[in-house]
Amino acid sequence: MADKIVFTRGVPPPEAFPTEELGVCFDAAVRANPGVVLEYGQQPGYEPLREARMISAVCAGIRVVSIYAPNGRTVGSVFYEAKLAWYGRLVRWLRETRQAAEPLVVGGDFNDVWASLGPRFLEPVGLKRAGKLQPTFPAALPFRPLDGLWVRGSVSVITAHPVRSALAKVA
């Protein structure tokens, strides 16, 4: 079961919660946005992290991780700080749950406008860029390439290209 992520609801053991990190994040969020963080009722989530997504599965013996990193918008903004924290959590997850020799592919929209976050966060955990970042979205006129693949272990990428479909243009 350790190599699977369960997406159903459940009650994890108390030691599974990173309480120190959550406390630091909570304190920062309350200081920056007390009116939003402490509101009652239906809430769409904390906006700087609302868009981030990650899913992981094993396909043919290779761990494949698909990500959509948060858009940091402006360097120094709460959105950018949330993006850096999200990358830090991704690295912690890789270190704590994945073996260094495990065949691994991490791909998706890294929202890495200057191509600096991959080397800063992913190379230290043994991932290597597999080809260039791809300009995929907005599909009609991308200004900077944001999407890419990173690999580790016995994985080799022979070819990779963005999907060009009608759905990709409206996604």
Question: Can you walk me through this structure?
Answer:
The chain is α+β, with helices and mostly antiparallel strands and 171 residues long. The protein contains 6 helices and 5 strands, in the order αααββαβαββα. The longest helix is centred in the middle third of the chain and has 20 residues, at 78-97. It starts with 18 loop residues before the first helix and ends with a helix. Residues 1-9 have low confidence and may be disordered.
**Overall pLDDT confidence:** 77
**Helix count?**
6
The Rg value, from CA coordinates, equals 17 Å
Shape: globular
Question: Which band does the percent of strand residues land in?
Answer: 15-25%
Helical amount = 25-40%
SS class: alpha+beta
Low-confidence runs of at least 5 consecutive residues: 1-9
Strand order of the largest sheet: 1-2-3-5-4
Topology as a string of helices (H) and strands (E): HHHEEHEHEEH
Number of strands: 5
Biggest sheet details: 5 strands, mixed
User: How far apart are the first and last residues' alpha carbons, in Å?
Assistant: 33 Å
Descriptors:
171 residues, alpha+beta, 6 helices
Secondary-structure map:
Layout: H1 19-32, H2 34-37, H3 47-50, E1 53-59, E2 62-68, H4 78-97, E3 104-109, H5 117-122, E4 128-129, E5 147-152, H6 166-170
Parallel strand pairs: 2-3
Antiparallel strand pairs: 1-2, 3-5, 4-5
What's this model, at a glance?
The chain has 171 residues and is of the alpha+beta class.
